[in-house]
Amino acid sequence: MGHLDHAAFGWLTPVLSYAMACIGAALGLRCTVRALGATGRSRRNWLITAASAIGTGIWTMHFVAMLGFAVSGTDIRYDVLLTVLSLLVAMVFVGAGVFAVGYGKDRTRALLTGGLATGLGVAGMHYLGMAALRLHGQVHYDPVLVTLSVVIAVAAATAALWAGLNIKSPVAVAIACLVMGAAVSSMHYTGMVAVSVDVAPSGADLPGATAMQFIFPLAVGLGSYLFITAAFVALSPTARERAEYASAEQLAPAP
Fold it and tell me: What single DSSP character describes residue 212?
């Protein structure tokens, strides 16, 4: 059995992956709150942005963490198609979750549905990303820990959506995003602890791309997208600010 190293670069990849999870959660929840204060096409666009932010954040978190994953006795490659598919799965499931919250009439039912869909999206992205792993040997999973990781994902997603809908204080929101980032990271590393590898040494070339050839450039690109989107959201006026601006215009004396 090969020795698994989940932090081949020390604390660098766990810390960076946690930061990406927090940024994605903060941005996605902020967009969801903006959506609830909007109507029509604007609400739809905010929800799409929320889904892309959360999906991108959790995907980037996963694969930044995977940059530090190594198995003794074998090289590691990643199937490009499955890796890209894992990103799409994350966005689609998270999109279903935030749209359930954004358009649901019954707040409790919408929250539970949205949390379930988003959590399954997080877990589905993780295990589809793991299915993209190519190495000399067989990968096995502990079913109990896999189940626990899925439960953590669903619980974390539900709690995060609840916080986004009910907590208004900036400090409380920041704490909620840090907790959400910690929960997503916990789900990831719980899923990774479930992994064991029976290495079968071989000199044959592995199919797929290395993490630095494919994962790293894509993660950098998606991370840049998160920062640019965060700047856009920060500069966009809220519904309250727009209302105050319109009110001020109406009260302003005519020239």
Answer: I
